[in-house]
Amino acid sequence: MAVLDRSADALRRRATHLRRLARLIDHAELWGVGLRSDDATWVGPTASAFRDDLLHSCGDVRRAHDELLAGAVRLDRAADAAELAARAALALPTVPAPR
User: Fold this and answer.
1) Measured at the alpha carbon of residue 89, what is the angle toward residues 83 and 94, in degrees to the nearest 5?
2) CA 44 to CA 54: how far, in whole Å?
3) Of residues 2 and 90, which shows the higher confidence score?
4) How confident is the model at residue 54, as a pLDDT?
5) Please, what's the b/e burial string for 61-83 (b: 16 or more CB within 10 A of its CB; e: otherwise)?
6) Nearest to residue 72, comparing CAs of 24, 18, 7?
7) Rounded to an integer, what distance in angstroms lies between the CA atom of residue 59 and that of residue 23?
8) Which of 8-12, 47-51, 58-62, 81-85 has the lowest mean pLDDT?
9) Where are the domains of the chain?
10) pLDDT of 58-83, one tens digit each?
11) Which residues contact 8 (CB under 8 A, 6 or more apart)?
12) Strand, helix or coil at 42?
């Protein structure tokens, strides 16, 4: 069981790390840049191109954020399954070796 427990613990640590990365994305300065990039900041096609690129990039970052959280959920489920398997292995009766 100890090996499976370590496996479950490692999966949970990885899930925690993914959630930590997602929180960093949530609190990134990126989300406020669009509010500061209006026509008063830049004039001309460059400003429009920047805003369009920013919106596209924010969408990419949001998708990556969601993938991190989904990955964390998958790791948590795998950890739960590993723990259940370890507990089930302990509950199995030992079969005597053939003589």
Assistant:
1) 165
2) 16
3) 90
4) 85
5) eeeebeebbebbeebbebbeebb
6) 18
7) 16
8) 47-51
9) 2-91
10) 999 999 999 999 999 999 999 998 88
11) 79, 80, 82, 83, 86
12) coil
Residue 51 CB partners (closer than 8 Å, separation 6+): 34, 37
Pure H helices in 1-44? 2-26, 30-33
Residue 7 backbone phi and psi in degrees, to 5: -65, -45
Handedness of CA 84, 87, 91, 92 (dihedral sign): positive
Which tens digit of pLDDT belongs to each residue from 12-45? 999 999 999 999 999 988 877 777 766 666 666 6
How high is the mean pLDDT of the chain? 82
- Joined together, the tokens standing for residue 75 give 């790791």
The DSSP element (H or E) to which 73 belongs, if any, is helix 45-91
